[in-house]
Specification:
Elements: H1 2-31, E1 37-43, E2 49-55, H2 66-69, H3 72-79, H4 87-92, E3 97-99, E4 125-127, H5 140-153, H6 156-171, E5 191-194, H7 198-209, E6 214-218, H8 222-228, E7 235-237, E8 248-251, H9 256-265, E9 269-270, E10 273-274, E11 279-280, E12 285-286, E13 291-292, E14 297-298, E15 303-304, E16 309-310, E17 315-316, E18 321-322, E19 327-328, E20 333-334, E21 339-340, E22 345-346, E23 351-352, E24 357-358, E25 362-364, E26 369-370, E27 378-381, E28 386-388, H10 410-422, H11 429-442, E29 446-450, H12 453-463, E30 471-475, H13 481-488, E31 492-496, H14 507-512, E32 518-524, H15 533-542, E33 546-550, E34 558-559, E35 562-563, E36 570-574, E37 587-591, H16 594-604, H17 628-639, H18 641-659, E38 665-666, E39 674-675, E40 681-685, H19 691-700, E41 706-707, H20 729-734, E42 738-741, H21 749-766
Parallel strand pairs: 3-4, 5-6, 5-8, 6-7, 8-9, 10-13, 11-14, 12-15, 13-16, 14-17, 15-18, 16-19, 17-20, 18-21, 19-22, 20-23, 21-24, 22-25, 23-26, 25-27, 30-31, 30-32, 32-33, 33-36
Antiparallel strand pairs: 1-2, 27-28, 29-37, 34-35, 34-39, 36-37, 38-40, 40-42, 41-42
Length: 773
Amino acid sequence: MKRAFDIAFSIFAIAITSPILVLVSFLSLLIQGRPIFFIQERVGYKNKIFKMVKFRTMSLDTSLDESQRIGFYGKMLRKFSIDELPEFFNILFGDLSVVGPRPLLKEYIPFYTKEQARRHDVKPGLTGLAQVSGRNSLSWNEKFKFDISYIEKQSFFFDIKIILMTIKQMIKPVGINSSKTKSMERFDHPFYLFGGGGHSLSVQFAAEESGQDIYAIYDKNLDNIQALHSYKDAILTDSLPVNIAGVRGVLAIGSNSIRKKLSQDLSAKWETIIHPSATIHESAVIGHGTVVLSGAYIGPNAVVGNHVIINTGSIVEHDCVVEDFSHICPNTTLCGGVHIGELTMVGAGSVVKPLVKICSEVVIGLNSSVIKNIDKPGTYIGQPVRRLPVNKEVEKADIRLSMAKPVIEKDDIDGVVSVLESGILSLGPKVEEFEKNIQDYIGVKEAVAVSSGTSALYLALLALGVGEGDEVIVPSYTFVSSVSVILHAGATPVFADIEDVTHCVCPRDIEAKITDKTKVILGVDIFGHPANWKEICRIAKKHNLKTIDDSCEALGAKIDGKMVGTFADVSTFAFYPNKQITTGEGGILVTDNEEVAMHVRALRNQGRSSMGGWLKHDFLGFNCRMSELSASLGVTQLNKIDKILDDRERVAHMYNDALKGHDNLTLQVIDEGVTMSWFVYVVKLGRGISRDAVIEELEKREIPARAYFDAIHEQPFMKNFKVDTSGLENTIDISTRTLALPFHGMMTKEEVDFVSKNLIEVIDLLKPQLAVA
């Protein structure tokens, strides 16, 4: 239909405008001479090159400035878009469409991002959305955004709308360079910021203030860029341009080693960025790729190498040398004649005495003073500085740490062997025994053992009738299965924020998120600390909603002496090897509702009801059965649950004693009346300290650590689902700062002290990055 319209429209337009075409041809020949037409290669559909025809508007004398090449006659042709009338023949021949992105020069192709390259997925047009939205007054990024917007919205009626808007603009031109001395700037050698982390915000500010037009901000972690940057025109991208050699840019990354690697991997043209408020002596020498931020001072005869960061308010006095890939952090002073080696970082607020030489690959800590030469790589802190031991020099005392460790003893092994010897491996007496023991331990009427905690949650939703069109309120700060089961059930997760202190879901935000589609509130007892179930149940009752307690991390926890698992309509527990007790893999659902329990028993066993035969299936079910081997392990594990919980609490108290009072660590807070069942030991890092950097440094010391938890709404798979993620301030803040340390009930004081000592050292080591990141 579009091609038929193009042919009909172009024939009609050529017929109607033929007197104008003839007249303009005659006037052009008379005023400008030959050639009448300007023919240029442009890029069409699927990158096919074609020759586009326009009336010539410029003088042939290329020695003249562009402002001199466009005369009054040419300006008038451009102003009323008369120069583009011959393009109707391009439409007739199939090179152009009436409406589409305007065809651009073929040399621009290598500079497109993947998103921008989509403009060639449709046939280019005589006019387009960008043409009627500002035309040459738009930046290149704005033009590309309009092009992509057209592709996503295109329809016959949308094309008609654009044609009518084009006619209006021809009568009353807007955004066309008819009176300007130059055409729109060429799209080549765009300026990129490479790196989208916190430091790039400072570089972006300096680049803008120094007059750079930032075309794009590149980072592999696109979500991180989008969270940090709000530059009005820049593209945020995780793909490099094809022609990286034609790109100008700067490495906006705080890490010295990463800047060095990227400078070797990328062949961009590196620019030097100097904030206008910085003071640079005329005799100073500054290398390419270097960034000098606001308020910095670089004195006479100073030499600053390539890809160096001279951060905000820093002073580099006369005759100093700062070698390549170094970082002089904010408010640092290098006195006269100081020499800083390659890949060295001098921490914020530090002072280096005159004529001191610091070798390569040195880190000087926050607010340190250097009064003598440093000739050995490493980390130095203090006033005056002292060298911290490097990783291999840390006394490990033959310690081997793991994140978690199940308590497996002789009775557990004997029980599993006994099941193997019995030959009954599924749907046997051990599953029934384990279910009965869990019922008695928690104090509920029903318990249904299943293959995992995830299975328990999913079957709970199905048994409560949750499905398509329903909403389930759930925290985003949790393990992924709390949310994935909702999506698998066909419902929509509605994310409620968490409390700043306990990190459990906030009852006030739960109530604020309730709609007429809400069916279930799914709370999580995070890290073994119960959510505020009394308040959650009050809200649920008020709004006639069902409740599910995801207590997979909190077996044995209590509120005012009452076990978790007894508050919600349905509760679930999990027995993965890192949990308080383990069945290898396994979970269990508990409830006082016999009908729900009966439904879950059927669903876990291929939809078979207790009343039917082996091949009679009353429901669409699953195989979510717990094996006899797992149940046997559960029976023996549950027998010693009290000792297991006591041991884990003892280790948690040892951590508390070792870590309390540190400025950049917040420890677990337990609500009044709560008995916590310690699942993991999690600390909250101070704002500005990179959790990833802490984990990396600890792993160098052979100490495992994990991010607990990343927010689920920011997980990659969630991009496939449309959910509301507003109002999650605590979740977003806390999910980037919480860190789980090695934790299990068999840890010794020596092990806990070793982890704690190294964690504090690492945080102190990384403090200078507070001013960098």
